[in-house]
Amino acid sequence: MLVVFIKSLITFFLVLIVVRLMGKRQLGEMQPFELVITFIIAEVACIPMNDPYIPFYYGIVPIVTLAVLHLVLSVIARKSMWARTVISGRSVIAIDKNGINYQNLKKMNMNVNDLIEAVRSSGYMDFSEIEYAIFETNGKVCVVEKASDPTQIKPAFLPLSLLVDGKFDSDNLALAGTTEQEVRKVFLKNGIKKDKDVLYTDIRQDGTLYVSPKYQQCFTQKIGIKGGNNW
């Protein structure tokens, strides 16, 4: 009994450390690979605790291995846009300016009832009130409301990310109708010489560029784009 108690105590603190290393996230905010690792850790942690005759390292080694795997995948995803897409996927627009996007629903293997449930869970009962609905990589849905007053000056925009962690997204650049060179001109104008010094950049349908550098204050600037009606 004492052996089981000691095993359980050590396993608890080991799993606690691993979960803390994975970051301060709720279960519903985890990326798919983080959720898989969490479930496996929960399973293997029980093996040596329940049976005193199973060697303790049968549980310790898999937990440590999974913790290292998570850290490696996180670093790779941070450094490579392609790897991030493969590991975590991409956000998908389910409702756009034309209404429900049937092709994107098929990509997510969802039906209209699934979409209705997700939108209602976010507090929206009427599709006509929604300008955009985006499913994030963690499964949550983000909703952009339509302007309550059609005559109001500021329309509802959907920011399109162009650069994340110093890496450009070529697909979104093409969608927006701009180039890396055009965005870099804005960087240079504001004293930023290297892409890696920018944490995040996005653009709106009216050409407003938002730039958040790593080591200075964020700023916005308008540029000419050709794809403002594409998203």
The main sheet orders its strands as: 6-5-7-8-9
Q: How much beta, percentage-wise?
A: 15-25%
Strand count, sense and closure of the main sheet? 5 strands, antiparallel
Straight-line N-to-C gap: 62 Å
How many strands in all? Answer: 9
Radius of gyration: 23 Å
The percent range for helix content is 40-55%
Shape: globular
Low-confidence stretches: none
What's the helix count? Answer: 8
SSE order in H/E notation?
HHHHEEHHEEEEHHEEE
Mean pLDDT: 85
- The structure class reads alpha+beta
Topology overview:
Blueprint (H helix, E strand, L loop, with lengths): L1 H20 L10 H19 L6 H23 L1 H8 L3 E5 L2 E2 L1 H6 L4 H10 L8 E6 L5 E5 L14 E5 L2 E2 L1 H7 L3 H10 L8 E6 L4 E6 L5 E4 L9
Antiparallel strand pairs: 1-2, 1-3, 3-4, 5-6, 5-7, 7-8, 8-9
Helix pairs in contact: 1-2, 1-3, 2-3, 3-4
Please provide a written account of the structure:
- Helices cover 45% and strands 18% of the residues.
- The chain is α+β, with helices and mostly antiparallel strands and 231 residues long.
- The strands form two sheets. The chain has a five-stranded antiparallel sheet.
- The longest helix is centred in the first third of the chain and has 23 residues, at 57-79.
- The mean pLDDT is 85.
Short structural description:
With 231 residues, the chain is α+β, with helices and mostly antiparallel strands. The protein contains 8 helices and 9 strands. A 5-stranded antiparallel beta sheet has the order 6-5-7-8-9. A 4-stranded antiparallel beta sheet has the order 2-1-3-4.
